Automatic annotation (TrEMBL):
It comes from Echeneis naucrates (Live sharksucker). GO terms for molecular function: proton-transporting ATPase activity, rotational mechanism. The keyword Ion transport applies. It comes from the Eukaryota. Pfam families: vATP-synt_AC39. Gene3D superfamilies: ATP synthase (C/AC39) subunit, domain 3 (1.10.132.50). The keyword Ion transport applies. This is Uncharacterized protein. GO terms for cellular component: proton-transporting V-type ATPase, V0 domain. SUPFAM superfamilies: V-type ATP synthase subunit C. Keywords: Ion transport, Transport.
Amino acid sequence: MQNIMAELSFNVDHGYLEGLVRGMKAGILTQTEYNNLAQCDTLDDMKLHLQSTDYGKLLSSSEDNLTVSLVDTKLRENLVTEFSCLRSNALPPLSTFLDYITCFSKNVFDAI
């Protein structure tokens, strides 16, 4: 009986996050899109291919010349923003797990 009640309240507690994650998953590059990026000779070609994806808005907002470090910075900022959104809307035990991921990733990236 308790399992049934947990299932009935799933959307109340976790439905918004599930929708966010499904939306983020839909924005991940497909194999075809990735193969097209692998064929790019310049960063401008890459920017052109990415404009039709969810990543296009990240690079189109930049006024600076496109560099590898700029692309890296924009992608990292986007990752942090999306992760922070998930973390701020999560309830335990997911929020605890996401806190562990944050601590672990800081330890890993500080070691590099």
